[in-house]
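Continuing from the previous page of notes. For each protein in this section, the sequence appears first, followed by its structure tokens. Read the first protein now.
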Amino acid sequence: MIEAQEIVTVIEGISKYINNPRTKTDGPHTASELGRFAQYYGADRVLKEINPSEVGSYSESISEGGAVPQAAEKLQVIRGFLSYMKKSGHLEVNLAQHVRIKKNRVRNNKPADIQEVIELTPAGHKQLNAELESLKNERGGLAEEIHKAAQDKDVRENAPLEAAREQQGHVEARIRDIELQLRNAVVIDPKKRRKDARVRIGAKVTLKDLTSGKEQGYTVVSVSEANPLENKISNVSPVGKAVMKRVAGQQIEVDTPLGKQSFLIVRVSA
């Protein structure tokens, strides 16, 4: 049993969660949503300092980012993570119950056939295509699992059938999500772009914390490519928004859950 007094940061908690063989972390949204969660609160934020209202705000930010079914699947990843943290003693409050999807939202007046352009790096575009191919290949196996499980006449307690159908739903939702992204994607190759040294999608940025003096490098990517474990931050994250279109030598301020932090942009490269 893990001691409740152990201080664990967000990124440490995520690492414990995904490395625990008893937890199911192989879903289509798991890696990207846990990465988004760490990016939102800050990887070094102490997990037990996060309060229910912050989790509610996070849920709303996800709900506003897409269709209700897809948002629900993404938030389910966070529920699972927070539930595990509570059971393992790293949270004193059950934050999972505050992860709720806001269903009654005002509709966007934008026509349904007009979608926002998604900027992707070449690596991100390749990764999405590879994931799409893998998921489509998974379809056949899931259909076979459902067929075999459905042969059990007692469907009331047919856990394999329920699990296979649930996984099929996740796979199909993720396929639709990726296909939508690829239809509206513009591949941005920073090496072929005009060299005005400003931060854009695909740029590598080195920041210096003006309080601690510590330097940290990041790659600015789209939301779908964000991965804090690889220092890939999205252009809509607090740090990403602060550095976009800035140049080396400029000072920025970033709003974080711990307050404002000041950074110096040391280097910008493709």
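Done with the first. The second protein uses the same format. Note its length before scrolling.
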Amino acid sequence: MVALPRAVGRKAAMEMLLTGDLVPAAAARELGLVNRVVPDAGLADAALALARQIAGKSPLTLAIGKEAFYRQAELDLAGAYAYAAEVMTRNMLARDAEEGIDAFLGKRVPVWTGT
């Protein structure tokens, strides 16, 4: 009940809470409850493709980004922007950022070090 109105808005959350109705996949996508909808037969392939895409990113950058995402959400708007600017600066100074840029420019797959 706490997270739902923050995710979908008060009106949709209230309707869900009071009716208990199941939410069809397309409606869940529209409300932002899920990021994407795939056919049942393609679910495993879609999940693996997403996992592979994420796993191919810098582990350092993923950790920094995940922490920053949750921390900035607790700040007021000005604080969130200030914090995000600090995080982006720190992230750009990492070796993985340099590797990512070099790999992009060299049209090659990056080799992440996590530093």
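What the second structure shows: Helices lie at 3-8, 10-19, 25-31, 43-55, 59-73, 77-92, 95-105. Residues 16 and 91 are 40 Å apart (CA to CA). We return to this in next week's lecture.
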